[in-house]
Write a structure and sequence with these properties.
The structure is a single chain. This protein is of the alpha+beta class. Helices cover 46% and strands 10% of the residues. It has helices spanning 18-27, 47-55, 89-98, 103-108, 110-122, 132-137, 139-149, 153-167, 175-197, 204-210, 220-251, 253-261, 266-277, 308-311, 347-364, and strands at residues 30-34, 40-44, 60-61, 129-131, 282-287, 291-293, 296-298, 303-307, 365-366, 369-370, 392-394, 397-398. Strands 1-2-8-5-3 form a five-stranded mixed beta sheet. A three-stranded antiparallel beta sheet has the order 4-11-10. Helix 9 (175-197) crosses helix 10. The longest helix is centred in the middle third of the chain and has 32 residues, at 220-251. 41% of the residues are buried. Bound molecules: protoporphyrin IX containing FE. Protoporphyrin IX containing FE binds at residues 54, 82-83, 94, 145, 229-230, 233-234, 237-238, 241, 279-280, 283, 335-337, 340, 342-346, 349-350.
Length: 399
């Protein structure tokens, strides 16, 4: 089989190359991907090997950064992000951030979240169609992060615009525009910190500013960078779970009907949609020392790609891996990472958002349908995040 360029966003323009993944899992589970501008990385395609790499942080490092290299960003300038750090700094940073990310803080968002979802749907009440991405799915995650962090309503449009520019995967946005938006986001976070320095509020920004671990606090720059990571990690991912997940349900009407008839199945359905859709497709690690993965020797310094979107369809772990079973149990998917110290910090928040959103969609819309052939809908241009740029839907009635 021809080799596919797994580093190239164009490879994912019509969704994941599942046939190619299958061939890799069966015939060459750990294999080299040569880069046209020089160098290579290892591609790890099987569930068990992805778990091994993810959980062995002593051997596989997140520094210098865990993103797939592209020609113009081999040093992505992302080394300050939490996700690009290793122990002991990562452990300390994560402990500090966890001070503001407690299950209680997430649970306290529920009422606001429910109200927000219904307000978004109410705004569509006099229509019979919309773009699922831009009119429905995009708003909830953006507002939830803004609520959590403490961004006032009046500033949200601006912060959302910067979020789209910095990580929005729009190929027409230049590197310069991204850098400018990031600088403006940092300056904005600085102003938020200044306002909370002497007058803490009940928001994540205030907690981050005053949290201490071993007598140390986050620096203003660390808070700025985390602010940006949170906006990005929390918005695009959850949006795509909602859009790709809803599409998957619409394409599997038996599962959709079953779920509609018994909403208590929602938690396990969401896990299955996470597995099936895999909104974050892959992350990279770097070997700190010589090792091996499934018998393949890996040298110190080699880059290793964990392909979550392949691991989540591994037929040796998931029966009927390419189908949907909303009651699948166990469901050991790797959509939030395959275990280890960087496991998604926002997993419980993402699950809550998805539950509230799907519940509202399934109970309020009737006659929901996709408007067109999903194979022709544009997807986001990315080698990290999968999802649709636009997804037209129609309905008969909103209750
Ligand atoms: C469906 C939605 C989401 C998916 C699929 C997702 C997926 C992931 C994945 C795969 C990782 C890397 C895990 C690893 O390397 O082991 C990650 C890390 C992370 N996620 Fe999420 N995520 C989602 C939603 C969120 C939300 C809502 C937030 C914030 C509120 C968030 C914040 C983060 C952060 C901060 C990290 C870095 C953690 C660290 O490096 O220690 N994510 N996520």
């Amino acid at each position: 089989m021809d080799d596919l360029a797994l580093y190239d966003p164009a490879t994912y323009a019509h969704g994941f190359p599942y046939e190619h993944y299958r061939e890799r899992r069966a015939a060459r589970p750990v294999s080299r991907q040569e880069l046209p501008w020089g160098g290579f990385f290892w591609v790890v395609a099987r569930h068990r090997d992805v778990q091994r790499v993810s959980r062995d942080a002593e051997t596989f490092s997140n520094a210098p950064h865990p993103f797939v290299d592209t020609e113009e960003m081999s040093d992505a300038g992302t080394s300050e992000l939490l996700i690009a750090k290793d122990a002991p700094e990562h452990i300390k940073l994560r402990k500090l951030i966890n001070r503001g990310f407690t299950p209680k803080r997430v649970a306290d968002l529920t009422d606001r979240l429910v109200a927000r979802v219904h307000a978004i749907i109410d705004g569509l009440a006099d229509r019979t169609g919309c773009d699922l991405v831009h009119d429905l799915a995009l708003w909830l995650p953006l507002h939830v992060i803004a609520d959590l962090v403490g961004v006032p309503e009046a500033d949200r449009r601006q912060v959302f615009d910067w979020t789209e520019l910095t990580f929005g995967f729009d190929p027409s946005v230049t590197a310069q525009q991204r850098a400018e938006a990031a600088a403006q986001m940092y300056a904005y976070a600085d102003r938020m910190c200044a306002e909370r320095q002497d007058n803490p509020r009940d928001d994540l920004m205030s907690v981050l500013l005053h949290a201490e671990v071993d007598g140390e606090r986050l620096s203003p720059f660390q808070i700025d960078v985390f602010f940006m990571l949170l906006q990005n990690a929390g918005s695009e991912t959850t949006r795509n779970l909602i859009t790709t997940g809803l599409l998957a349900l619409l394409q599997h009407p038996d599962q959709m009907a079953r779920l509609q008839a018994d909403l208590s199945l929602l938690p396990s359905a969401i896990e299955e949609l996470l597995r099936y859709a895999t909104p974050v497709m892959q992350f990279m690690r770097t070997a700190r020392r010589a090792t091996e993965i499934a018998g393949t020797p890996i040298a110190a310094g080699d880059r290793v790609l964990m392909v979550y979107s392949s691991a989540n369809r591994d037929e040796t772990v998931f029966a009927n891996a390419d189908g949907i079973d909303i009651t699948r149990s166990p469901n050991d998917h790797v959509a939030f990472g395959a275990g280890g110290p960087h496991f998604c910090l926002g997993a419980s928040l993402a699950r809550l958002e998805a539950k509230v959103m799907f519940e509202a969609i399934l109970t309020r819309f009737s006659g929901l349908a996709v408007d067109g052939d999903p194979a022709t809908f544009p997807r986001v241009h990315s080698n990290l995040i999968d999802g649709f740029a636009h997804l037209p839907i129609t309905w008969e009635r909103i209750r």
